[in-house]
C-alpha cells in the first residue's frame, strides 16, 4: 500500500511540476521592473559606438570613470570638483564628502557637495552616483545621473563596459544596482 501511494505521489509530482514552474516563471516575469523600457526625455544624445553626450559633455572609451565625473563638473560647475582628482579611486569621493576624510583634494571641495545614502532622497539629474568598493576592482565606481523617470534613472559612465549609458530601476528613491552607496549633489542644486 505504501508503495502504491509513493508511486502515485511521484506521478502527480512529475506531471504537476512543469505546470507549476511555468506558472511561477510567468508570475516572476510580471513582477520584474519595467524600468529598462524608459523613453528618453532627450537629455542624453546618442553619438556612436556606445558613446553618449549629456549637456555637451561626451562619454569616452578607455578612460576611468572619475575622469568623466571630473570633466563633467569642472566644465559645468567650475571650482566645484578637485581638478585632476588625486584620490586613489571613485569611492574616495564618497569618503571625502560623506565621511569627511581628507582624500584626493576633497578637504577643500566638500563644502560644495552633500551626500545622501541610497534611498534617502529623490535623485536628480547631475547627481553623482557612487558605488562602494565591491565595484571597480576595489576602487569603487562613479556615474552621472542624466535622466530621472518615475521607475528608472539613466546614468552615463565610463570604464564599465562598452555602452556608456545604462538604465537602472528606481523603487521608492532607491536605485537598484549592486554596490550603490548613494548620490552626491551640488549644494546649489539641492531642492
Automatic annotation (TrEMBL):
Residues 40-185 form the Peptidase C51 domain. This is Peptidase C51 domain-containing protein. The lineage of its organism: Bacteria, Bacillati, Bacillota, Bacilli, Bacillales. GO terms for molecular function: ligase activity. It comes from Tumebacillus flagellatus. SUPFAM superfamilies: Cysteine proteinases (SSF54001). It comes from the Bacteria. InterPro entries: CHAP_dom, Gsp_Synthetase/Amidase, Papain-like_cys_pep_sf.
